[in-house]
Amino acid sequence: MFLLLDLPSIGSQVLRKAPASYTKIVVKGMTRAEMILKVVMAPHEPPVVFVDNYIKLLADGNPETFQKILDMKGLKRSEQSSMLELFRQRLPTPPSGADTGPSLSFSTPTPEQESSRIRRLEKLIKKRL
After folding, report:
1. Please, are residues 109 and 117 in contact by the beta-carbon 8 Å criterion?
2. For residue range 49-67, what is the model confidence (pLDDT) as tens digits?
3. Which terminus of the chain has fewer CB atoms gathered within 10 Å of its CB, N or C?
4. Does a cis peptide bond (omega within 30 degrees of 0) precede residue 46?
5. pLDDT tens digit sequence for 9-25
6. What angle separates helix 20-41 from helix 111-128, to the nearest 10 degrees?
7. Secondary structure (DSSP) of 91-125
8. What is the C-alpha to C-alpha distance for residues 64 and 84, in angstroms, rounded to an integer?
9. What is the pLDDT of residue 18?
10. Is the distance from CB of 86 to CB of 47 less than 8 angstroms?
11. Mean pLDDT score across all residues of the chain
12. Cα angle value 20/27/119 (rounded, 5°)
């Protein structure tokens, strides 16, 4: 990740920090990639725990994204269909009176919340090892 952060100044005669907006985009993208890897590497049994873990880590209510994660895990289509049904059942329900469009929107966590979640996840992973 550090190489990506230094990318704007590689080959430049002047050493300077990357713009804050660039750094923010890189950190956000790498954090999402890390969360995807954690979900893909997690065991899919029991299914409820796997689905809940996906919802907590990725905060993505899109069934197509969940389907891609299941494809990355190499699950058979028969296993995927039951997991997708469970995923749809476990999604948080929008507040009453809210627009119930086809896509769900989740609030973006603050950096403090994100790092706190990462630390808790790291502790859980260490406990399992």
Report:
1. yes
2. 999 999 999 988 889 999 9
3. C
4. yes
5. 676 767 777 788 888 88
6. 30
7. SPPPPTTS---SS---PPPPHHHHHHHHHHHHHHH
8. 9
9. 77
10. yes
11. 79
12. 125
